[in-house]
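Why do we bother with a discrete structure alphabet at all? Because it lets us treat a fold like text: something you can write down, compare, and reason about line by line. To make this less abstract, here is a complete entry for histidine kinase. Read it the way you would read a sentence in a foreign language you are learning: slowly, and without expecting to understand everything at once.
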Amino acid sequence: MQMNRRLVDLVFAGLVVAVAATAENTIDATRPFAIAVTGIAVVYCRRRWPVPSLILVTVGLMVTIVVQRPSQVLLFLTGLTMYEITLRTTMRRPWLCGLACATLLFAVGMIADPAQWWSLNSLGLYAWIGGGGAVGEAVRNRRAYIAEMTERLRQAEQSREQEARRRVMDERLRIARELHDVVAHHIAVINVQAGAAGHVIKQHPEQAGPVLEVIRQASDNVLREIKSVIGVLREDGEAGTTEPSPGLARVPALLDGLTGFDVVFTQTGSPQQVPAIVDLAAYRIVQEALTNAHRYGDGHATLTISYEEAVVTIEVTNRVQGHGDGSGFGLIGMRERAAAAGGSVTAGPDGGRFRLLATLPITAYALETAP
């Protein structure tokens, strides 16, 4: 694109010099030289400074009109600069510049040579300058139309991708619900058979074998169902891992991995053994909260983890510099994780800072009775 512009400027500059050397030729070489220099300056400055270029070429053309020898080169450049003004400036009414330019030139011509300028041919001045502006307006509208269509196509493609992802997520949620129903059924069978096994072992030990076999088969079915469905729910290209799920014990390692972000970490109370679902939810909430604090904050945050008798509390505060308002998808995900573990998450501005508070139960009974 830059090379094409340079080539066009070179062609225009050569045309200006050629016409100035022929049509503007006089005994004195001062006139064609001055017109050529003015024309070359306008050619190379019209894109960056279109309005000053129009002023320069208008003044030069006025001088040639006063001496009763209007320059054809400068007249051509008035239309060219008017084209650039309409195309490249943000004026709401660029045609006013063209009207003012043509009227000023016509007025000077009427003063310098009324007999020559008082004719219909003089109106061609308006047509030429206005035509340059009209062409610039047409090109600008076409570029705006192409840009708008390109943006619409991009948004349409993005919408299709989002719709496809949404449908995939809906299908995965449906599969997850079906998995829940199947696993719940098998677990209920295991629970009933385990109770029966305890009774049979006490009363008739020789009959315990079939009951334990039912428990084993039900357990195998549960593991098989979970393995198959988890394989479907896993993202494309996501490799399986044998590492244990992260928990609160790995929070210090998480903080050590942060770069360019200062976190003041405080832990109160004695760490306790918490259910796996709470441990994982707490770690993910800390991870997401610190990510948001890093993204929207000023590079500093405080993290407090408090172990109490029945709950663990996570608090993250930071000063807000971005546009986070507490309504993003990250916060929705944290609330869902907390709700799945029987807890809750509250977040929002608090005295010039953004504060996130998560409360999670650490007893199995609290999880069983959570809605």
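What the structure line is telling us, in plain words: The chain has twelve helices and five strands. Residues 124-203 form the longest helix (80 residues).
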